Amino acid sequence: MIEGIIVEGLIYGIMALGVFLSFRVLDFPDLSVDGTFPLGAAVMAICLTGGMNMGLALLVSFTAGFIAGGITAVIHNKLGVPSLLAGILTMTMLWSINIRVLGSRANLPLLRTETILTSIRTLGEATIGETAALLIFFVIVVLIIKLLLDLFFHTDLGLTMGAMGDNEQMIISQGVNPEMVKIIGVGLSNGLVAISGAFAAQYQGFADVNLGQGIVVSGLAMVMLGEFLFSSNRIGLLTLRVILGAILYKAIMFFGRYYGYYINLTPNDLKLLTGLLIILSLILTKYRSKSLKFRRPAND
Amino acid sequence: MIKLEKINMIFGEGTPDRNHVLRDVDLQINKGDFITIIGSNGAGKTTLFNVVSGNKRPSSGKVIVNNKDVTNHPEYKRAKYIGRIFQDPLLGTAGNMSISDNMLVAGNKGFKGLKISLNRKKREYFREQLKYLDIELENRMSDNVGMLSGGQRQALTLLMMSLSRPELVLLDEHTAALDPRNASKVMELTDKFIDEYGFTVMMITHNMQHAIDNGNRLLMMDEGRIILDISGEEKNSMTVESLIKKFHDIRNKDFATDKTLLS
């Protein structure tokens, strides 16, 4: 049970890292996530059933997500549309595209297809057991992604991205085109989301166009839950707490699903629970920042 | 070096709110000039800066830098040779990042690649530069800029701007939002940097004494026009009183036309 929660948390944690990048680093509230998550799943599924190399299939999923995110940024940049609307446009268009990717159907089962996870499972069966193998595999995958992301945020481009989310005028003053930074940033964010979708499809054994419904909200809840664990300005810890927040979120959802019937909670209520979690986080953050302001030392 | 030719700026053309902010502004900025600009609210000072920096495109007229027409170049391209400091200390730095990260972003202008250039050598260089400010920021390099006071932030912005040695520096009342002590500290640093690097500067100020004490050239703006452009001996002999008198003399001429219109 606990392994299942952690594995799910890690899979969706990759998506939460993407949401963290757009919402927190870039300050670009991006809803295309609801479309790029199933896009990643669909691309992965169709590539695998077509017999493509698994690593390559993952790369194609990432690229598809990156392009979709880039399109959101371009709509925002060139048409002067708020990022929220640009994201909704991309998300809506992706629903049709995802059905086309899946070959004019809404669902593609992967039960008889060899995936990255089936090979991990067979590897595990012979040695340390299926669940343990999956757990180790995802810990490694998420750790690699997290470290690469940390490394990226230490590059000049990564630092510029962080600065832009805080103060776009500063970036312009430093001779950087903010439109370009947004395209790369939102693209990267949705590339991560697509990878997460690709793993989710393999984990659940199917790709479905409705896989992404409301996913951006759960991603946001994961990011916000993480922010309650500890505060820091070191990027390594910031990304770590996103992943921990994702696991925590999955744990809360698990308990909501399994023990919720004591208070008449059904699985249908989980979206309500997610929303309430976010509202609770917002209230607590507001309260906390107020007390923080009070305590701030008056330095010169 | 930088030339403005017949710049007109009209906001809300074709609406009842039509506002003619800059009227036929011609200006030649020479290398090494330190120009101070005074004028009442709405005289067009900040709009003039917006046109020079590329933040706003003029309705008509040309901006020429080193004999090249840059009127249609976007702000981020011009930022490679124009440095600008705003009145709001928050606009020049990113509050959620450390001092050294901020300095790194400012270090080399233009698109940033996937290089990791914040190494020990660079950090040491930044520390040296911060010591130059003499406000003990060199010991707080990994602190977030958001924790600094307005004066400290503006001093840091000044330092970051000078790291790239811009050809033209625009100071838009950059001490106006600070308390008197910090304002004079930042102004002192400004003078130090200008002396050290020989910057060409345009500075908007509300303080007439500042405008007289600093720089080699003084512009007075009113209703979208440059109504006074003095330099050298004429500027040095100015006092606040004589400046106000001059302002009234010129305005009176304007008023005369209004009076005849009314009578």
UniProtKB/TrEMBL annotation, chain A:
It is found in: Cell membrane. The chain crosses the membrane at residues 5-23, 43-67, 79-97, 132-153, 211-230, 237-258, 270-287. The keyword Cell membrane applies. InterPro entries: ABC_transp_permease. Keywords: Cell membrane, Membrane, Transmembrane, Transmembrane helix. It is a multi-pass membrane protein. The keyword Membrane applies. GO terms for molecular function: transmembrane transporter activity. GO terms for cellular component: plasma membrane. Pfam families: BPD_transp_2 (PF02653). This is ABC transporter permease.
UniProtKB/TrEMBL annotation, chain B:
InterPro entries: AAA+_ATPase, ABC_transporter-like_ATP-bd, ABC_transporter-like_CS, ABC_transporter_ATP-bind, P-loop_NTPase. Keywords: ATP-binding, Cell membrane, Membrane, Nucleotide-binding, Transport. Signal peptide: none annotated. Its main location: membrane. GO terms for cellular component: plasma membrane. It comes from the Bacteria. Residues 2-248 form the ABC transporter domain. It is a peripheral membrane protein. Pfam families: ABC_tran. It is found in: Cell membrane. This is ATP-binding cassette domain-containing protein.
